[in-house]
Amino acid sequence: MASGVTVNDEVIRVFNDMKVRKSSSQEDVKKRKKAVLFCLSEDKKKIIVEEGKQILVGDIGESVDDPYGCFVKLLPPNDCCYGLYNATYETKESKKEDLVFIFWAPDGAPLKSKMIYASSKDAIKKKFTGIKHEWQVNGLDDIQDRATLAEKLGGTWFV
After folding, report:
1. Helices (H), the chain
2. The ADF-H domain covers which part of the protein (predicted)?
3. Would 100 disulfide with which of 60, 105, 120, 133, CB 3.0-4.6 Å?
């Protein structure tokens, strides 16, 4: 069932910036997002970029040592959100990089929040064309161990 929630244009721009791997200057690469969270607006009518909930590629090695661990800490403990994580991982054949769409719905989130986020998920997924990996996560136990995501991606290790 659709919720009638729409996706803000900034969300689509952020997704396209993360998806496109054009040759860029070193400065542009540093500004690229490694991870970002999206939430519902105050009036629950739009999916928006959550302010201050992002990790830039340029932060890695500077203010962020473990990008995945830092991403997990950005997740709200008692509310839902959506996330995009640019995972770099290794398979037997090669090193790969893929965007992972994450639907975070922790057990402690209010039922109403879970319902509206679940019914709005298709709206955001339709805007994220080309996403190969989707992961619904219901608690820290599911997401803290990076091996779980590596396994979902078909790899053995990732950052």
Report:
1. 9-19, 26-31, 67-74, 111-127, 140-143, 146-153
2. 4-153
3. 133
